[in-house]
Amino acid sequence: MQARLRVVAAIFIVVAVAVSSSRVLDDYTDRYTTDAITAAAVSYATARGINALVSMMQSSSVEAGIGVVSGSVTVGELLDPINDMIERFATVMTWVLASLAAQKLLLLIASHELFLYLVAVVGMSALLLLFYGPPRTRNTVFRGFLVLVFVRFALGLAVALNSGVDLLFLEQQQQQNDREIERFQDNLFSIDGSDTLDTDSLRDSTLAFWRSLSLDELERRIGEGIEKFINLVAIYLLKTILFPLFFFYGVYYGIRLLWRVDLDPPEASPPPAPGVS
Which residue, 140, 92, 117, 104, is CA-closest to 32? Predict the structure, then answer.
């Protein structure tokens, strides 16, 4: 039994070292995290752009009534909800960007040449000790090799699985909400990408646009924008923070299990012979 277990362990060591050296998944996971950071940064920049426009309107016209809307309703009162939502969104996106940057850093460490050499050296040591080392040393080195291999591939596999879930369920929703946020900015401030207005002209044109809207229509547009920001918060929290937390719990649990591996389990005692009491 022990000899067969050592042969299986030896095959596993050779395969694991070979796969580790081949950098399977490294390029894919690096591209995925880079694209995710870029997308999150674009969403953050868009939100901050809206926040700057909101602050401009609040500070410059906070006491101005909106024409036919109501003389008692001020710009500040109308824009406070979206301004608060953007501030909270920006806080969440800061954590999202930090999480993505940490994942990218860990992937770079796990795929660095020094780490690959460490896996190879510990793997070859474990392979030799399988057949020529004392049991205690053999078990300790093999457990260390299992932990190294687990760390080497666990994050990459988790990112790959996360990208699969993202592609199937979240990516389309995220892109749609990103487009809706950009459309919300254009619809709320009556601007588009071709506008080159200065601050005063932009403020005046926005106020003139708002005067053409009813209070219900303006509040509806602001409410829709808040809804899109909430959707983006949920999507980013799910795929960049909650999933990685589950992953790190899985890593902790997996390392605890791997450290219990024993290449020299006690032999089962034979059953007593019939008639022997």
Answer: 104
